[in-house]
Input
Amino acid sequence: MALTILRNSQEMSETKEFVFEETKDYTGAKLGMWLFILSELLLFGGMFILYSAYRYKSPADFHHASKELDVILGTINTIILLTSSLSVAVCISAIQKGQRKLSMYLLMVTMVLGLLFLVNKGFEWGTKIEHGIYPNSPVLLARTKGEILFFGLYYVMTGLHGLHVLVGVCVLFVMLILIAKDKINRMHFTPLENSGLYWHLVDIIWIFLYPLFYLIT
Amino acid sequence: MTSTGEAENIRPRINFYEERRGILSWILTLDHKRIGLLYLIFVIAFFFSGVVLGFFMRLEMIAPGGTIMGPQTYNALFTLHGIIMIFLVVIPAIVTVFGNFFLPIQIGARDVAFPRINLLSWWLFVTGAAIVTLSVFTGEGPPDTGWTFYAPYSLRTSVNVPMAVFGVFILGMSSILTGINLVTTTHRLRAPGMTWKRLPLFVWAIYSTSWVQILATPVIGITMVLIFLERFFGVGVFDPTKGGDPVLYQHMFWIYSHPATYIMILPAMGIVSDVVPVFARKKIFGYTAIALSGMAIAAVGSLVWGHHMFVSGQSDFADILFSLLTFLVAVPSAIKVFNWVATLHKGSIVIEPPLLFCLAFIFLFSIGGLTGLIQGALAPNMHLHDTYWIPGHFHYIIFGGMGFGLFAAFHYWFPKMFGRMYSRKVAKWAWLIMFIGFNIFYFSMLLLGWEGMPRRYYDYLPQFRSLHLTATYGSWILIVGLILMFGNFFRGLFRGEKAEDNPWNGVSLEWQIPSPPPTENFEQIPVIQHGPYDFKELTRNE
Amino acid sequence: MKTEEESHVTAYRTYILVWVGLVILTGLTYTVAVGLQAEGWAVLVALAIAGTKSGLVLNYFMHLKSERLTIFKVIIPLVMAVFLVFILLTFSDLAFRGGAK
Output
């Protein structure tokens, strides 16, 4: 998202043609991305409000249901995302230092970690669904209201989050292509930095999802 | 030339209409002015449809019992009237049309911070609008839930709720992106010398509004998604049979929808703040108070949503808290009203259509605000909630306030946008007719509500007959005024005389460039040396 | 206007140290959750740790610490305040209903 400032040409001719010369406002582009991040935080924030409300209402049910989630897998996924944040952060420093190959390698690592996260999530969901636990399933509906809500929130929140991870991986892939084509380099890396910001956002959301779903005592 | 303090600028010979032609150059444009006009076309089209829906609603309600339609149709009509007017007209109108068109010019910029995102916002708006429109004609018919989509009815009703809420979700995305664009533009693209304290108050108003768009809209976004998911996957979040709490739906819905009313009104207040000084030939009274009160309204206005829920079953404590906060939010609005009146006091008043609409705004908005205080108190609310008092109140605010503010903007900026002038005489007559019709119509609603007439009811007891008749007559007078006003605009557009660059003698930057503006707004970015209401500057050079 | 070339380059070492901190905090939150029994405490501790981890990500990975303009310093506290207000006012209803919850 580069900011474009349009300037007219110096020429004075019969038919005045405006020639647009692009000057990029790096800070402005970054600000725009941050404002978008704010909106995403509140998108998930809305769900966190619902989570708090229902956990407050049925703490025992939430505790009980949470035990059915795989804590180990959840913790591994947390480490995966944290590491992917590391790799994308170093990737950006690398491109700033002109270390193109390193940055491409790290970007690929980030994407692989992201996909790994999604694969794990797929397994988690798969096992649950096999056991008949999914929204509106007869097995789930036979349980207490609090547990129905827990799993409803679980699927929606981790699902929405997973969707954001997927989008993030796609965005990073585009960045990879752009680095390969030298459209992103040490002189101009704003899109990469903004993509990194988005990726860290996805990480931060999971930092909260993890204890709230997997570590309910 | 006053604001640049430089030698006369050479005028470019073409304006932004002539720059490039053809429909593709419009729907793929990156020019904020063209995007503003693209929004205008849709906003006007949807406003007309909303008015037509309202017209038929009033026709039905002219007498008790069925008049021209059955109850299901009536439910669909008021739902659609609400969805269209709120999401497709009142929330977007001033921000996307005039914010897009004039904010960059008023700050001395050539365009917004993210022109491509701006175009994307418009496309999302069109897509959302299309989806909402489609929901009327597909499935089992249009939603009948009211524009508020309350659970659990919205989860169970067989009509096309999913499509409508999905459309609202897309519209929300458009709104968020516009907010991001305008906040970044205001921070990053002000011309040299354009300090925050020299910004026109319209810019301050759009800036405050944009923050609300960014921060509040995501909550309704997720709420619409949840309705959608509940209907298709039975998630259970709002469904009482699965432990969900319908009151929690109302919280989530109103957390956005109350601030949304400030998205609607703040830009209109910005218009009034810009127009009144020009037609009083006097600097605005209390510039800082008006600028900051807009931010205060945005902030405090995000704390009051529970006043829509006094009878919903929420706790007494929440009732009291939200009532108190609601009284607080009246304060910054009142500050603005006092300051506008103080600006007019001892001013050199010029009676022109833009001012007339602003004066009507001040009067009608004040009535709306005062009725808001009455219903914001708990005891009266018990009786007034879900009666005609409520639509009476909000039409005073939204139509009398935002609507008249929008019309003021049309009359003020029409010459600048189109390079032509409408008939001022016809405009004044249209204004008068609208003002009379409006009050007959909506004051009757306040009275109906006071007497106990429930809202969203298709039928009613005979005792309400005369007030309903009066209201319907008022609506017809109002519509005549609207037709006259828009007729005047269309005529002005095609056959009006050419307008000067500065027909109203304003000081803000848009009046220092040609009508219509050239593509990049300014030959050279101006260097700003004074504020936008410095009329002494203008008279010194006259 | 700052160009990209002039922007601050964070050392690799800093990033790695932050990552180590994040992993340790993850381990901490896991241990505490398994160890602590009292419901009320546990959620607050978990949120505090999550908040700290987010703070590290925001300040170091997302470079908020090295931003100079006021607007960047304001936005995260702003969104936290907004969220807090939304959730507290919602709970002014939920926590005080009386009767069956």
In short: The longest helix of chain C spans residues 70-94. The radius of gyration of chain C is 19 Å. The mean pLDDT of chain C is 89.
